[in-house]
From TrEMBL:
<dbReference type="Pfam" id="PF02545">
    <property type="entry name" value="Maf"/>
</dbReference>
<dbReference type="GO" id="GO:0047429">
    <property type="term" value="F:nucleoside triphosphate diphosphatase activity"/>
</dbReference>
<protein>
    <recommendedName>
        <fullName>Maf protein</fullName>
    </recommendedName>
</protein>
<dbReference type="InterPro" id="IPR003697">
    <property type="entry name" value="Maf-like"/>
</dbReference>
<keyword id="KW-0378">Hydrolase</keyword>
<dbReference type="InterPro" id="IPR029001">
    <property type="entry name" value="ITPase-like_fam"/>
</dbReference>
Amino acid sequence: MLKPLLDKLNTMRVILASSSPQRKLILESASLKFEVHSSNFEENLRPEDYTFSEFVQETALGKVLDVYEQLKNDMKKPDLIIGVDTMVTLDGRMYGKPKTREEAIETITRLTTSGIPNVVYTGVVIKYKESIEKFTSVTTVYMGKLTKEEIIAYVDTGEPMGKAGGYGIQGIASSFVERIEGDFNNVIGLPLYQLTQKLKEIVNT
């Protein structure tokens, strides 16, 4: 982030409501001073009740509100809380973090053999003082085809576990991502450019 914005933000107590090491690294790369507080929000929204964009925004909002409740009685209350949720979609279906090896194999098989790109939605919610701001970033990811043996070998590296859609574009998966349309950081889990633009709007109003 550029200095005028950082100068303002770094006088505040800024919270990242996420335990994701990837999101933490992206935000650290911007030289922002912030604390990490994990949310206990139970991610149990019904996908069929929302559009993809609404789903990730509402999940991110749940994380923000949960962390606010954890910290609201602190002597120094949070000035700004950032919550994020990422979901991979393919052909009208959402793919979250695979819970088992078998689910990871099934997900990667679908993503790399369907012949169509997957689309990554990241919902970001910012609580600044008493206001709530929301936005969604969307990136299209084109993957090359993998053999069954390659899929199993990839899953057995352990990389897919804990990642939306079962792949880490910043890791081994980069070797079978043909191209993307949109923000690379969004696929990792935090659309830094859009976040920066929104923070500029918020703190300068």
